[in-house]
User: Fold this.
Amino acid sequence: MTVEETTFEPFLRALREDDPQRLYDLAPCGYLTTTADGTIVKANRTFLAMCGRSADDLLDIYRFDQLLAAGGRIYHETHFAPMLRMQGSAREIALELAMPDGTRRPVLVNAVVDQDEAGVPELVRIAVFDASHRRAYEQELLAATRRAEESDARARALTATLQQTLLPPSPPAIRGLELAAEFLPGDEALDVGGDFYDVFQVGTDDWVLAVGDVCGRGVEAAVVTALARFTIRAEAMQHDEPAAVLGVLNRVLLGYHAKRFCTVALARVSRRDGRWTGSVACGGHPLPLLRSADGTVRPVGRYGTVLGVVPDVRVHDAPLTLDAGDSLVFYTDGVLEARRDDDFFGEDRTAESVARASGTAPGIAAGLVADVLGFKNEARHDDLAILVARAVLG
Assistant:
């Protein structure tokens, strides 16, 4: 008889007939009785079927621990038997029966010790429950957990790789212009953010600087971010004015039908006569800050329309001049929207941070990141990108 053939129906019939011996033999779990040293002296039919042995092959021959797999025998000696001696009982002990054919059957074991009047152990009564289905479920659960962890690790690696493709590996070296950039991804590690920055050359001593933010996260936001970045690069070769470039980007985003808007601050600067001059335009983006060599800070440019929402956008070119020691600071709204309770970091704190930072481009960028992180007390934060360009003309 197999364990599967021991059903509840014979047991229930024995229960109705009030037959104690049949109730014992046909119980839906294995019952056995051992002497104090573990020798099996009695076992019901369910247990015999469970361990694959007959009564003649088992009773008064085997100790209970001899029916266990190797690991179970060790556990029996180091934990199960001492627990019975000390506490007189054990519950829900997970073991494995070693079957005659070499396979193993997982079981759960409960046991109690019968003592004589003097308190000396005489018998151990053991109930054994087949845990094959439970073990299979646990193994599948563990396997599913491992698969999920591996999938999570692959997704994180893919996210990090994809995010890096949206940013230049490092700001380029430009004669007369010191650059520094900081990018801090948000807490949603499995989603690519939409913040980006870029610096690229369009002519001799002629450069374009951009910082942008695509709404939302995930693959679709990443696609729109790449579209925005490369549209800016392509159109900057065709148009001198940043506002014209942003106008084309707006039309491209509307044509893409992604329902993702974008904000961009874009500047074009050229080195002429010992200074950098050019213009800056903003499409729905926070205005960049100009820190003069004397430490004063003011916003530059004019606010414009968010890109990718309406056909007719209003973006304006504003003149820009960088003398030696002047710094132009771009940032995304992850800086402004860093929170401490109900208070935002905001524009005033951003300007104050830029003003008190060390005068180098890396010092300004790192100082602003440090101030934002020191201010916020929320565990979560949005992506933030910072780009600083400082004139170092001799």
Observations:
- Confidence is low (pLDDT under 50) at residues 1-6.
- The chain has two domains: 3-137, 165-391.
